[in-house]
Amino acid sequence: SGNITIPNTVETIGNSAFYNCSGVNGALTIGENVTSIGNSAFNGCSGLISIVCKQLIPPMIGTNVFDGSTCSIYVPITSLNTYLNDTNWSNYVSRIKPYINFEDKQVEDIAINSNWDIVNDNVISKVEAENVSALENKYMNNTSIKTFNELSYFIGLQEIDVNDFNGCLNLTGVTLPNNITKINMNGFADCQKLSS
User: Fold this and answer.
1) For residue range 134-163, what is the model confidence (pLDDT) as tens digits?
2) More confident call, 63 vs 196
3) Cα Dmax for the chain
4) Cα distance between residue 63 and residue 40, in whole Å
5) Number of CB atoms found within 10 A of residue 181's CB
6) Rg of the chain taking only CA atoms, in angstroms
7) pTM given for the model
8) Sheet strands (E) in the chain
9) CA-CA distance, 45 to 19, in Å (whole number)?
């Protein structure tokens, strides 16, 4: 019961592996090294609230893999078109939605732990990012983060607030959304390595 994560050590999910598992009633995350998913592997798992595929290259899938549930299937935003155009995934095109695959794991962890992950599936979907209206200093004084180019998807932001990135000493790159109209005082103060 609850969320299920197929670890990165798994490469193949066999036929009917979780067929009609009534206890699967949360988010399903499929690790990045899975290359094939067998027929009906998750068929009948009607309690799924979301499916997250971490693979940049869509895994081979059998028939009826995700039938019996209607939840969204989140794929890396950088691979969205690859999934949508892959004939193996054609039965699920209407359910495929992008999530943001952050380059910097620290940035991703902060985003997920900032109540921006509304679905509670440990990823930030494009829609969830678009709904963020303020960073609320979540990144202030964080000396671990290096890049946040995915900020460009946070189109609900109108401005960088006072101290949002103040003290991020190792931050080297940020891509702002096009609709930012104001960068407030100390928004990027002491970001000594910031170059772009």
Assistant:
1) 999 999 999 999 999 999 999 999 999 999
2) 63
3) 57
4) 6
5) 8
6) 19
7) 0.87
8) 4-6, 12-13, 27-30, 36-37, 50-53, 60-61, 72-76, 96-99, 147-148, 159-160, 173-174, 182-183
9) 7
Task: Over range 79-88, report the average pLDDT.
Answer: 96
CB atoms within 10 A of CB 161: 20
What is the spatial distance between Cα 183 and Cα 125, in angstroms, rounded to a whole number?
Answer: 25
On the question of pLDDT at 9 being above 70, the answer is: yes
Alpha carbon 105 to chain centroid, angstroms: 11
Q: Supply angle C-alpha 1, 129, 137, rounded to 5.
A: 105
Give the C-alpha distances (Å, rounded to integers) separating 46 from 28, 43, 69, 131, 162: 12, 8, 4, 27, 45
Pairing of strands 173-174, 147-148: parallel
- Spatial separation of the C-alpha atoms in residues 51 and 23, rounded to whole Å: 15
Nearby residues of 109 by Cβ (< 8 Å), 6 or more positions away: none
Q: How far apart are CA 150 and CA 100, in angstroms?
A: 7
Q: Which two tokens stand for residue 92?
A: 């699920």
- How far apart CA 178 and CA 65 sit, in angstroms, is 39
Give the tens place of pLDDT for each residue, 33-56: 999 999 999 999 999 999 999 999
Amino acid, single-letter form, for residue 75: V
Q: Region 4-30: what's the mean pLDDT? A: 93
